[in-house]
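A quick aside before the break. I want you to see a complete sequence-to-structure record at least once, exactly as it would be stored in a machine-readable document. Don't worry about memorizing anything.
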Amino acid sequence: METKTYTKKDIATQLAQRNGISVRVSKDLVDDFFNIVRDFLMEDHPYIRIEIRNFGVFESKPTKAKPRARNPKTNEEIYVPAHKKTRFKPGKILKAHLRKPL
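That is the input. The structure line, written in tokens, reads:
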């Protein structure tokens, strides 16, 4: 099965076509949007939630340190420090479409 990959340029092109603006302007808008989302997720606050209605939720939350994690290749025990973990939870419309059988 072949994977279809879309880039920021594809998003900017679609945005330009749908709104009748230039691709250069739409590329700047798309870049700004993703920069804002990234900046929000990179804040020092431990729990961050970005909710985009009818699309989904981006969350960032801390994980606990794991003093006795194991490297599966070498079987060596290692220490994994506490860090932040991000996840995306799709909204109702997107989730319903993704659950349809292929």
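Two observations worth writing down. The helical segments are 8-19, 23-41, 92-98. The beta strands are 48-52, 56-62, 66-70, 77-80, 84-90. We'll return to this after the break.
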